[in-house]
Design a protein that fits this description.
With about 375 residues, this protein is α/β, with parallel strands linked by helices. Helices cover about 15% and strands about 20% of the residues. α3 runs antiparallel to α5. It starts with a helix and ends with a strand.
């Protein structure tokens, strides 16, 4: 009888421990799937995962928007930190939050686009990503603020587009981005930290008429470009034609032609101006283009053997070139990047004269 009681008690204890272990494994714990470490937010959340880490070796990484029938909504702190293999990373538009130092010291990461779905960035998210050349935050961003040292020490960054919707830029958000040449800031920004651009000595702020950013540049003696009055981008109006046409949309203006971009209205040189429905004319502006050099495939403003190697990696599908890089790498200008382009760069470095367009200036 005593043995039965003892056995029953032991079984009860084991059952209790099993339940406790199950709860512990379900609430806020991690699961492994392929190369991904995924956090379960809570026992009651059956539809979402957080990215907790990545153990793969992809250099051109696309973060999935769904894994195991759950939506990926957050990237945890330090999830990709110190990943020296990562060259490009595509963030899905399901991501709502990127936590502190998520990509800290990803020293080979080149370009980054933050989707408009992101509502919160932690501090130091891209700190010390010393190879990032271009930053873009998508327009109509849900992001309120760019926090402390978010892009600090991104020493190779040349251009940044903050995206309409962002409201504030914290102190040292771009601290020590020594090569940052242009940053476009939209009228939605109403607060910028005194030292937001600490040691950005080559910076020109591109801002809109009567915006806080323009006033900030003036008050802090930072070179600036006045982009005129901000115009919200609109979709082209559809038209109905009685004659056959290859397109079903058009933009109707006065004899001058216009091109609408997310940040401005550009007017081609004519003797007339853009007609509008408002009583006062809207000022227009032409966006400055950036200087590049044909053959500079890694965008470091130098022609070296690394550029030829960069093209070879692209051709081998090891690390694909971005849109701008594809234009610059096409040194024979045949609208296609091939091994011939890498060879022409090598000949240029060897001192051959008149090697296609290698080294010539191009504005994009």
């Amino acid at each position: 009888m005593n043995k039965k009681i003892i056995i029953s008690v032991l079984c009860l204890i084991l059952a209790v421990f099993s339940v406790v272990s199950l709860i512990s494994a379900s609430a806020g714990s991690f699961v492994e799937y392929n190369d991904w470490k995924l956090e379960i937010p809570s026992m009651t959340n059956k539809t979402e995962y957080y990215i907790g880490g990545y153990n793969g070796s992809d250099s051109n990484l696309v973060i999935p928007d769904r894994i195991l029938d759950r939506t990926i909504v957050k990237i945890n702190e330090y999830a990709f930190a110190n990943n020296e293999k990562l060259l490009y990373c595509t963030i899905p538009d399901t991501i709502i939050e990127i936590d502190n130092y998520a990509f800290d010291t990803c020293t080979e990461l080149r370009n980054i686009t933050i989707p408009s779905s992101v509502e919160k960035l932690g501090k130091g998210v891209f700190y010390d990503c010393s190879s990032i050349v271009e930053l873009k935050i998508e327009s109509k961003s849900q992001l309120d603020s760019i926090p402390y040292v978010c892009f600090g020490n991104c020493t190779s960054m040349l251009t940044a587009d903050i995206g309409q919707g962002v409201e504030s830029i914290a102190d040292y958000a771009f601290g020590n981005c020594a090569n940052l040449r242009y940053i476009t800031i939209y009228p939605s920004v109403t607060e910028i930290g005194q030292n937001a651009f600490y040691n950005c000595n080559n910076l020109t702020i591109r801002a809109y008429r009567d915006s806080y950013a323009l006033q900030y540049a003036i008050e802090n003696n930072i070179p600036y470009k006045d982009l005129g009055v901000y115009v919200e981008p609109t979709e082209p109006a559809s038209t109905v034609s009685t004659e056959p046409s290859e397109t079903d949309t058009t933009v109707v203006t006065t004899p001058s032609t216009t091109t609408v971009t997310p940040s401005t209205v550009v007017t081609e040189p004519t003797e007339t101006s853009v007609s509008t429905t408002v009583s006062e004319p809207i000022e227009t502006t032409t966006v400055d283009k950036l200087l590049y050099f044909m053959g500079d495939a890694d965008l470091d403003y130098r022609i070296t053997i690394k550029d030829a190697t960069r093209i070879q990696k692209h051709l081998a599908n090891i690390s694909l070139l971005g849109e701008t890089q594809l234009i610059i790498a096409d040194v024979d200008e045949n609208a296609n990047v091939t091994i011939k382009d890498a060879t022409l760069i090598q000949k240029y470095l060897a001192g051959f004269a008149n090697v296609s367009f290698v080294g010539t200036e191009v504005y994009l």
